[in-house]
């Protein structure tokens, strides 16, 4: 029995290495793969045959002969549209939906000006309808999906279904969202913390490419960090790593709701500005317009936010010692003031200063991370199942 388990494990590793190589390298042959992965030709042939059988790779014809002549090799190609991924990501004022192939190419996408903070049940119904629309747009069914991936704020421990979400998000019930989606579409539903999805997005497609140790700071309605250490997402024992919004000061010990997030989130600055407002309530788009006009009240608030974030980044660096910090979220609207202030604090107060840069992926940053997460999940599922079936 022990030998069987070990052989299955080896096949899983080999098939995953082959699948990753074909996905990353592009069109290639078994001989090239065997040399690249230092794998025997019989083992390569067996594992490639298993992947061909399920259809996730295809034979696309003959390649060129080697310099020494001989038979032309048969080329292998990853099948991008073997399965699809649906991503659901909700922002401060809207929800975003997209359908992508396994490569990560977005096939269809749309935004709806509705969030779960207003009416959770209506929002879930809207999400189910949105998934149905995306499937219908390509004439596919849920059986063609590798996964549905959802980003959400808070501490999301999927292992024991323990989801802790701030009250500022209304009656957001992540467990109910997962349950209703699974009932409507019997496919894996992956729930990922928004900041964790974002750091993966930056690592795969953005400014964090090539980094082994990376932090992504999301700031706006929520404040949190996604952390990558040694090229792997660091989520912690309770999947609560990076929850810097809970950072406290001595004042927090005696003042209710004085955590970092509650001090500088969008709701907080709106409350401060609306206290002095005599007319219509100030909205976040109003704040952005006033910032662009260099309203002194708004720029003072942005300086306060930047200082708080700069201190939080310094404290985080003292623990994780990463090589780069990327800032994203709603507050990038204040980038010209925000980034230099955070960088100045890091340069002057961090033990080992590192670059602080803005995200250039915009709202797609967490979406790209969710696609990468779903692909990783599906590749692992495919290779584990295929290797097990060969026993």
UniProtKB/TrEMBL annotation:
Gene3D superfamilies: 3.30.420.40, Winged helix-like DNA-binding domain superfamily/Winged helix DNA-binding domain (1.10.10.10)
SUPFAM superfamilies linked to this entry: Actin-like ATPase domain, Winged helix' DNA-binding domain
Source species, domain of life: Bacteria
Family named by the database record: Belongs to the ROK (NagC/XylR) family.
Keyword annotations: Carbohydrate metabolism, Xylose metabolism
Function text: Transcriptional repressor of xylose-utilizing enzymes.
Protein name: ROK family transcriptional regulator
Single GO BP term: D-xylose metabolic process
């Amino acid at each position: 029995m022990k030998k069987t388990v070990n052989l299955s494990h080896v096949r899983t590793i080999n098939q995953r290495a082959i699948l990753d190589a074909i996905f990353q390298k592009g069109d290639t042959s078994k001989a090239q793969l065997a040399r690249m992965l230092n794998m025997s030709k019989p083992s390569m042939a067996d594992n490639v045959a298993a992947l061909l059988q399920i259809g996730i790779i295809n034979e696309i014809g003959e390649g060129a002969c080697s310099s020494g002549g001989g038979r032309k090799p048969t080329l292998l190609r990853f099948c991008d549209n073997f399965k699809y991924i649906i991503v659901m990501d909700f922002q401060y004022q809207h929800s975003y939906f997209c359908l992508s192939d396994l490569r990560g190419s977005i096939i269809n996408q749309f935004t709806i000006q509705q969030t779960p903070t207003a009416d959770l049940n209506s929002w879930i119904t809207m999400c189910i309808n949105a998934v149905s629309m995306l499937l219908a747009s390509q004439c596919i069914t849920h059986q063609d999906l590798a996964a549905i991936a959802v980003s959400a704020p808070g501490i999301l421990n999927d292992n024991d279904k323990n989801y802790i979400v701030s009250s500022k998000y209304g009656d957001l019930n992540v467990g109910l969202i997962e349950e209703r989606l699974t009932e409507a579409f019997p496919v894996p539903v992956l729930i990922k913390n928004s900041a964790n999805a974002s750091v993966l997005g930056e690592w795969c497609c953005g400014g964090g490419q090539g980094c082994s140790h990376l932090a992504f700071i999301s700031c706006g309605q929520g404040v949190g960090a996604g952390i990558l250490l040694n090229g792997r997402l660091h989520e912690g024992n309770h999947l609560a790593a990076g929850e810097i919004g809970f950072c406290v000061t001595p004042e927090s010990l005696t003042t209710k709701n004085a955590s970092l997030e509650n001090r500088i989130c969008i709701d907080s600055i709106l409350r401060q500005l609306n206290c002095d407002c005599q007319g219509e309530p100030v909205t976040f788009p109003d704040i952005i317009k006033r910032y662009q006009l260099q309203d002194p009240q708004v720029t003072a608030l942005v300086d306060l936010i930047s200082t708080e974030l700069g201190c939080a980044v310094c404290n985080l660096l003292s623990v994780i010692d990463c090589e780069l910090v990327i800032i994203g979220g709603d507050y990038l609207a204040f980038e010209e003031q925000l980034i230099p202030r955070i960088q100045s604090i890091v340069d002057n107060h961090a033990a080992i200063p590192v670059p602080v840069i803005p995200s250039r992926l915009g709202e797609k940053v967490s979406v790209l991370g969710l696609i990468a997460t779903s692909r990783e999940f599906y590749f692992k599922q495919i290779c584990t199942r295929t290797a097990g079936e060969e026993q």
